[in-house]
Amino acid sequence: MSRIIRFVALVSLLSPGVPLLMAVDCRPCQGVKVPPEPRNDAGGVPYCGKVTDVTRTSITVQYADEKPKCFAASDALAAGKCPKEPRPIPGRQQPYFVQPSMMYRLTDVVVGDWVDICYSSVDGVITCDHICIKKRPGGLVPPLPEEAEALRMRRPLAPGVPLKNPHIAYHEWTNAYWDLEDRDIAYPEKFGRDRRFPVAPLPREVKPQP
């Protein structure tokens, strides 16, 4: 994940007033050192990598070549719920902001998924609170829970003003991105002005005939 992407992620977590982006960043976190565990109580702490194990009460994520790290699942995740609410942090009046794309259920995750997670550290207890599925190698990223996707819905600027583009679900953005990156498949026509296409190869040099 680039420094710019990490900055946007942190701003989104820390600033409830930041508007949601309709397009999504689907790139995995690579080449950036994951922040160390906080020394004090904190919430919304980012981590990312490949899922190496997932149970009803935990998720294990491996960042790059580091040792896989096991996180206990929050009560909401362990119960199979959509984790919409931020975890209350002692001594912190304003909670961190939860992006809708971070509201996957633990039951949506499978081993091999590339994920971003947000975890909390309270009284030394580390807990995974929120999960975003960034890629499912060899498969398709599943839809967000309906209540999470509803939070991403575009709203008209005024009554009767039509939207320029239809709503594109998070998983549609993500799967279209990887279809283009991995298979040179253009975004579907429904993406409108946000549609992207494979980059055409450079023309070959024409050598003069002897």
What does this structure look like?
With 210 residues, this protein is α+β, with helices and mostly antiparallel strands. It has helices spanning 3-14, 75-78, 146-152, 170-183, and strands at 42-54, 58-62, 69-73, 114-122, 125-135. Strands 1-2-3-5-4 form a 5-stranded mixed beta barrel. A hairpin with a 6-residue loop joins strand 2 and strand 3 (69-73). The radius of gyration is 19 Å and the shape is globular. 28% of the residues are buried.
Properties at a glance:
210 residues, alpha+beta, single chain, globular, 5-stranded mixed beta barrel, disordered N terminus
Number of helices: 4
Helix content: 10-25%
Class of secondary structure makeup: alpha+beta
Widest beta sheet: strand line-up: 1-2-3-5-4
DSSP E strands, number: 5
Set down the secondary structure blueprint.
Blueprint: H1 3-14, E1 42-54, E2 58-62, E3 69-73, H2 75-78, E4 114-122, E5 125-135, H3 146-152, H4 170-183
Parallel strand pairs: 3-5
Antiparallel strand pairs: 1-2, 1-4, 2-3, 4-5
Quick structural gist:
The chain is α+β, with helices and mostly antiparallel strands and 210 residues long.
